[in-house]
Amino acid sequence: MPQITDWAPLKGSHVDNELDTLQSTPWHGDLFGATKLTKSQQRVVESLSLNPKFAAYAELNEVAERAAVNSSTVVRTAQTLGYTGWPDLQRELRAQFLVYISRDADFSQQVVVESPVHDSLAHDAKNLEIARNLIDAQKVTECIEVLCTAKRIICLGQGSHAAPSMVFAHLASVMGYPASFEQRTGVHLAAILNTLTEGDVLLISHLWRPLKEYTSAARIASASKAKVITITDLTTSALAKYSDLVLPVPSEGVFTFQSATAAVSVAYGLLAGMENHESRAIRPRLVNVHELWNDLGIYES
């Protein structure tokens, strides 16, 4: 994501009070109303809703990139919502954002930001709370059932956003599940998709701007009768459309980069559910893995 340079946290303030749990009263109030929007416009609204600081200070082209639309779609979205254009809507969003911070900040218990690391940790704590409220427990149960009964689990992810899939694939295989991680695309991805059949699962972790190859992969997997589970911060994307189960997570990070913390936490949660689902079968597999570690002399002690 392009760096937003016209905003910085106030010294001595808890920078992330702007992110609440998105419960009954969203940070943006009723600015988005109940207006009927196209799918592209819904992506714009979702991107803004889940990224308060970004919505308040990002440039038009940055908003368009974030929602995987063109700039004119962002402008039309603003006009559909009753504003003259993006600057008009953003002025309202920024005003709501600042009001939300001042209203919901607990000044009696304000935390002094000690460092950028503390800033990041505080921000991710809010992201985790948002994810906890966004994700439907029944969807989690369905995901675990699908994963536990899968013939194969192919986990896709790229760049820093590959972390959830990488962690999931490794630990699932440690527990004895037929999981593997693939970050290559192009001909390598095509070869994998060519083997997908009913009973297979494609697990995709993807944040920020949608990748065309992953959208196509989800579509092809669905046509092959394989199940598609997606961990994403954009539930109105084409990728989500081709997914059987979608687990939404916020990804707003501190300053330049998106955060994959909530997505990784979701991956760990799925693993915990899978271990509990097949605990009797998994226990001896874990014992065997420990014996293999010893046989290979992996650890110093």
From TrEMBL:
<dbReference type="GO" id="GO:0097367">
    <property type="term" value="F:carbohydrate derivative binding"/>
</dbReference>
<dbReference type="InterPro" id="IPR009057">
    <property type="entry name" value="Homeodomain-like_sf"/>
</dbReference>
<dbReference type="GO" id="GO:0003700">
    <property type="term" value="F:DNA-binding transcription factor activity"/>
</dbReference>
<dbReference type="GO" id="GO:0003677">
    <property type="term" value="F:DNA binding"/>
</dbReference>
<keyword id="KW-0238">DNA-binding</keyword>
<dbReference type="InterPro" id="IPR001347">
    <property type="entry name" value="SIS_dom"/>
</dbReference>
<dbReference type="InterPro" id="IPR046348">
    <property type="entry name" value="SIS_dom_sf"/>
</dbReference>
<dbReference type="InterPro" id="IPR036388">
    <property type="entry name" value="WH-like_DNA-bd_sf"/>
</dbReference>
<dbReference type="Pfam" id="PF01380">
    <property type="entry name" value="SIS"/>
</dbReference>
<dbReference type="InterPro" id="IPR047640">
    <property type="entry name" value="RpiR-like"/>
</dbReference>
<feature type="domain" description="HTH rpiR-type">
    <location>
        <begin position="24"/>
        <end position="100"/>
    </location>
</feature>
<keyword id="KW-0804">Transcription</keyword>
<dbReference type="Pfam" id="PF01418">
    <property type="entry name" value="HTH_6"/>
</dbReference>
<feature type="domain" description="SIS">
    <location>
        <begin position="143"/>
        <end position="280"/>
    </location>
</feature>
<dbReference type="GO" id="GO:1901135">
    <property type="term" value="P:carbohydrate derivative metabolic process"/>
</dbReference>
<keyword id="KW-0805">Transcription regulation</keyword>
<protein>
    <submittedName>
        <fullName>Transcriptional regulator</fullName>
    </submittedName>
</protein>
<dbReference type="InterPro" id="IPR000281">
    <property type="entry name" value="HTH_RpiR"/>
</dbReference>
<dbReference type="InterPro" id="IPR035472">
    <property type="entry name" value="RpiR-like_SIS"/>
</dbReference>
